Design the sequence.
């Protein structure tokens, strides 16, 4: 029975729970069965809440039995990346400095999940403070790819992606600053959506690159992404950068998901096919062919500033990060060094001892980019290039409904393969990063497998606030293929 | 030191705490002397994931102040992060404004005595959040209280147009008056609502050339007395230093001093190895503010007549002395109380006297404003009118004033009840005077005589009239009638 | 061979600004890595950005303002709950001697 339940999408699970055909309790037990059996090898979770989850599931089942109304995600077991604040458990950001941090407040998205009666079963592993593309930078744990345990799950939302792929939850929340939802989704063969900047509240998301960060769902398919987006999207008065209904009218992302987009115009950027693995290119091109068969028109475009995105990103994101992470000083919360000779050493030693190398590197880079004498040449220059990159997208969307490309130049790489040279790791973000700079939404869905049976991800990018259409476009591929239904053998 | 030899040059930076109910970026209540760390939330605590949201009232107060300081209000303004590490700064950056302050290029006009005023230019006005408090203890540790962290502050920076220690104090006091009049700040010095940082140097003429001494910044002054004294001290110290060592202003030799209130000296603070690199950049968590004409108009509509204007108007329109006008405009409530009373028909000088000689004394004792004594401008005007018309004596007016505080009765009613109404009708009184003259021929003769007995006799006759009228006769009127009758 | 984009002294300075007490080994390693990254971002100078506005916020949101309404604070206990060192009312740090910014 567990196996049957685990195969269900969030939509179907919620429907069955609401009808009493399936008990949330059983769904929760099923995922914990998987966790207990497989997470020792995979390492997706930093913490789990089995007891609380079962109690919550029981409450929801009882409510339903009594005929009371329940929320849009009632009874569905969901995991959350450990950089979103929860009043339950610890919020560690996979960092030693926050290893024992208990947040006194819930992130807005958490409040929304709870209000929708979702059952939050645990917090997942990530690159420390979301800085990384493989989850190898986690200061607390190692996560491997369920498709091949010698490979990375991607990052920084590697734990969330692995958890969904390994059926240890029905959906998960991740965060995306330069590709951190889409790339692990691509490596783990699941759907991962980065909404338009400002679509989902950042209140309670531990900030990395504030003008780039967005929370989004990782799910089994695009329709489940739509279902979760319905719950987490919306204006939040606690987040000054969250968009209101005037700019982004309220929308049901799920109700029309089955409708194909007619007269679909897809833009592809030929220059971007260079530099990716042959099999990846083949998988993406094959997917695009399917869209062509469904009646889409393919247009070739140029995006002349795309290749500058990585450089701009690593100045802007690190500048913001250097400031956002200044608060981790061991004074008011977090780990404090035992070796402080004076109050200044509370800062310098707490941070040096408890922050990982990649975090330190990015703080240093960002501090340098903002420092006196370098601000104009680095940070300001990067902001100007950002404007040019956004213009590329605006121009592209004047010609097409969406842009399609590979999510990543490769499939999941081997653990340790790119850790020797930070720059090499940065360069692997080439297809995802420009999207965050422009603030546009994008999704990654599986579009094939390579010879090693590793998932290949197709990235679809759409104009700002175009998620409703974007998800329908993604679903079009799913309606013609089975890639999203394939599961790793564990 | 003769005055011709040097010029004192001072620029002043003032931080004013705004009178909003809540902090700049979160809804924590602003409460003076609250239990430590009891007014703190995830935002002002700098917890992971917390985000700031700007307080509309703080922005409007800032715009109101900038307008009253004749500044250009920025149509587009934004928020910047100023990075430095300190235990009372929860995020280890302060949200402030760097290159696009909310107000710029204005001026403040200050009264400098004897009805004269001077305009000093204002360079900029901007909003920023305050830090918490570090408390030094006897032991090898410090305590941190974050109640104050996130309090909205207005930073006002003047151009170096101030030319004496006294003028610095006058400017600071005028600014206090203005922000209180506007209602944007309580500006209570006891509560630390205003902090000052003067930048001082001298331009000294020697041997036909002008020499500039190195600029000194004096930090953390929070009283007008300390402000004036510290600047005065610096002027003398810099002059002596120049005579002894000839040190002149160079790039990088600006020094920071603190003020020792006990010894009354400025004290050099430890020279830093390098200047602060605050690494200002636009705060990505906050969006810019656009001030369009409509919003600006709505805010400007809340502007009141400013204190100096009111003071000048009381002099020119009502003929008051500069001193009286300055006393009446010490705060808005008093000024409006006076103004309304005059507009309700009371004579300006009479109302002024009633307020300054009677009302303010009582108000001080009760620790409230004269406008809160329970007397409305209409009734005060009536009291003034009655006094001027001779219906009551000036002394009686004081008594009636006191009674008016406790009751809603008109001054006339009160005067009647207390038997304080004076008879001032000349015709009526003439009859009484005639009676008294007729009844006291000897006294009349003595009064007419003009010799030593005359004054006593005069007084006796006056007394008789007062007796006959049971003390209600207006002495001035009686004296006049008596005087003219005795001359005849 | 090519001039390093950032040298060891600058890295030390930046570490100081960032309040990171790095080991000599870290400083040495970071110097090489940061230099390589800064070399890479030089790429941006290939673009002529004269007349281009810097884009700090990607959406034109303006005037996100809140009303001056009191909201409940955490309370002293919750505020201090995660403090590594505290007494009943305050956060405790080693005695602060210098003024803001320290060294």
Sequence:
């Amino acid at each position: 029975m567990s196996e049957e339940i685990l195969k269900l999408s969030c939509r179907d699970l919620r429907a069955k729970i609401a009808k009493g055909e399936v008990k949330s309790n059983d769904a929760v037990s099923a995922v914990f069965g998987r966790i207990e059996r497989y997470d020792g090898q995979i390492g997706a979770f930093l913490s789990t809440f089995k007891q609380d989850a079962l109690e919550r599931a029981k409450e929801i089942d009882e409510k339903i039995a009594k005929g009371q109304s329940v929320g849009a995600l009632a009874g569905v077991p969901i995991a959350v990346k450990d950089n979103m604040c929860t009043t339950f458990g610890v919020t560690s950001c996979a960092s030693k400095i926050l290893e024992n941090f208990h947040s006194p407040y819930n992130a807005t998205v958490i409040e929304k999940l709870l209000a929708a009666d979702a059952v939050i079963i645990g917090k997942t592993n990530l690159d420390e403070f979301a800085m990384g593309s493989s989850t190898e930078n986690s200061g607390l744990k190692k996560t491997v790819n369920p498709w091949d345990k010698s490979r990375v799950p991607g990052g920084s939302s590697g734990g969330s992606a692995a958890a969904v792929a390994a059926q240890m939850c029905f959906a998960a929340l991740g965060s995306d600053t330069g590709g951190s939802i889409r790339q692990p989704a691509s490596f783990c063969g699941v759907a991962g959506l980065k909404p338009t900047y400002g679509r989902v509240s950042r209140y309670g998301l531990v900030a990395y690159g504030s003008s780039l960060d967005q929370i989004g769902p990782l799910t089994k398919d695009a329709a489940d992404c739509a279902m979760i987006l319905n719950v987490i999207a919306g204006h939040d008065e606690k987040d000054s950068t969250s968009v209101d209904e005037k700019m982004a009218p309220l929308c049901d992302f799920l109700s029309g998901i089955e409708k194909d987009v007619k007269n679909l115009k897809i833009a592809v950027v030929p220059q971007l096919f260079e530099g990716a693995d042959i099999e990846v290119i083949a998988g993406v091109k094959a997917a695009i062919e399917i869209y062509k068969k469904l009646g889409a028109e393919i247009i070739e475009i140029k995006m002349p500033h795309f290749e500058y995105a990585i450089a701009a990103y690593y100045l802007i994101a690190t500048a913001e990060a250097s400031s956002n992470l200044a608060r981790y000083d061991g004074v008011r919360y977090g780990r404090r060094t035992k070796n402080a000779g004076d109050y200044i050493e509370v800062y310098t030693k707490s941070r040096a001892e408890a922050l990982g190398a990649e975090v330190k590197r990015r703080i240093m880079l960002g501090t340098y980019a903002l420092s006196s004498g370098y601000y104009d040449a680095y940070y300001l220059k990067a902001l100007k290039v950002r404007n040019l990159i956004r213009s590329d997208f605006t121009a592209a969307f004047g010609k097409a409904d969406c842009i399609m490309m590979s999510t990543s130049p490769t499939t999941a790489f081997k653990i340790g393969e790119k850790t020797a040279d930070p720059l090499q790791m940065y360069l692997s973000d080439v297809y995802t990063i420009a999207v965050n700079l422009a603030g546009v939404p994008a999704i990654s869905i599986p579009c094939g497998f390579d010879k090693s049976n590793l998932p290949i991800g197709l990235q679809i990018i759409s104009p700002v606030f175009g998620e409703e259409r974007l998800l329908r476009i993604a679903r079009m591929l799913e309606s013609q293929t089975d890639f999203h239904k394939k599961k790793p053998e564990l | 030191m003769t005055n011709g030899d040097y010029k004192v040059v001072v620029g002043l930076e003032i931080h004013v705490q705004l009178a909003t109910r809540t902090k700049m970026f979160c809804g924590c209540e602003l409460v003076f002397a609250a239990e430590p760390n009891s007014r703190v939330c995830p935002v002002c605590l700098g917890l992971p994931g917390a985000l700031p949201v700007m307080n509309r009232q703080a922005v409007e107060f800032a715009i109101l102040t900038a307008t009253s300081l004749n500044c250009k209000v920025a149509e587009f303004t934004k928020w910047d992060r100023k990075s430095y590490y300190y235990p009372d700064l929860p995020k280890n950056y302060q949200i402030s404004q760097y290159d696009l302050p909310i107000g710029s290029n204005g001026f403040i006009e200050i009264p400098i005595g004897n009805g004269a005023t001077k305009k000093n230019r204002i360079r900029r006005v901007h909003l920023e959040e305050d830090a918490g408090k570090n408390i030094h203890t006897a032991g090898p540790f410090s305590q941190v209280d974050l109640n104050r962290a996130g309090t909205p502050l207005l930073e006002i920076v003047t151009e170096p147009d101030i030319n004496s220690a006294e003028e610095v104090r006058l400017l600071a006091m005028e600014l206090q008056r203005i922000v209180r009049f506007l209602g944007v700040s309580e500006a209570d010095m006891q509560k630390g609502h205003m902090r000052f940082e003067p930048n001082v140097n001298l331009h000294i003429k020697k041997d036909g050339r002008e020499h500039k001494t190195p600029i000194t910044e004096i930090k953390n002054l929070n009283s007008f007395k300390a402000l004036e004294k510290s600047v005065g001290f610096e002027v003398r110290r810099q002059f002596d230093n120049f005579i002894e060592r000839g040190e002149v202003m160079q790039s990088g030799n600006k020094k920071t001093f603190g003020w020792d209130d006990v010894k009354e000296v400025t004290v050099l603070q430890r020279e830093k190895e390098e200047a602060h690199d605050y690494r200002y950049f636009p705060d990505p968590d906050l969006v810019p503010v656009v001030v369009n004409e409509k919003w600006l108009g709505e805010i400007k509509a809340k502007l009141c007549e400013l204190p100096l204007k009111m003071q000048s108007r009381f002099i020119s329109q009502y003929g008051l002395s500069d001193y009286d006008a300055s006393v009446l405009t010490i705060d808005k409530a008093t000024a409006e109380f006076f103004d309304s009373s005059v507009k309700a028909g009371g004579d300006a000088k009479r109302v002024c006297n009633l307020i300054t000689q009677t009302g303010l004394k009582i108000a001080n004792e009760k620790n409230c404003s004269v406008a809160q004594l329970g007397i409305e401008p209409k009734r005060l005007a009536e009291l003034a009118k009655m006094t001027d018309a001779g219906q009551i004596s000036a002394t009686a007016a004081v008594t009636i004033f006191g009674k008016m505080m406790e009751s809603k009765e008109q001054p006339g009613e009160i005067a009647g009840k207390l038997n304080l109404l004076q008879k001032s009708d000349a015709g009526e009184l003439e009859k009484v005077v005639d009676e008294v003259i007729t009844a006291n021929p000897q006294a009349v003769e003595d009064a007419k005589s003009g010799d030593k007995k005359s004054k006593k006799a005069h007084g006796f006759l006056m007394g008789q009239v007062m007796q006959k009228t049971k003390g209600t006769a207006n002495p001035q009127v009686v004296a006049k009638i008596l005087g003219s009758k005795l001359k005849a | 061979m090519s001039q390093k984009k950032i040298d060891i002294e600058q890295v030390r300075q930046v570490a100081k600004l960032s309040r990171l007490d790095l080991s000599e080994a870290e400083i040495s390693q970071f110097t090489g890595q940061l230099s390589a990254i800064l070399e890479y971002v030089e790429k941006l100078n290939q673009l002529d950005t004269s007349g281009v506005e810097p884009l700090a916020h990607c959406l034109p949101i303006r005037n996100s303002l809140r009303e001056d309404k009191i909201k409940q604070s955490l309370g002293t206990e919750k505020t201090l709950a995660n403090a590594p060192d505290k007494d009943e009312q305050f956060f405790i740090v080693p005695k602060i001697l210098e003024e803001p910014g320290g060294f």
